[in-house]
Design goal:
Transmembrane protein; membrane; 70 residues
Amino acid sequence: MQDDTEIIASYGHPERWFVKASRKRAGRELAITALHWEVGLAIAAVPLTALLAYEFLGLMLSVAFPHTHG
């Protein structure tokens, strides 16, 4: 019966597997982080866009009807 080191040695170089796996995992984590940034920016963009539209509408109304403000 083979012990663990012989079994691992018979499959090649396991340190390469670990390097590959960690590289893949790091890439996936970077992709998830980028996705979180995109989602966060999209969530922040909605109220900011609404606020800018509201302010722009107020500016346009104050230019169009200057006499209605006291």
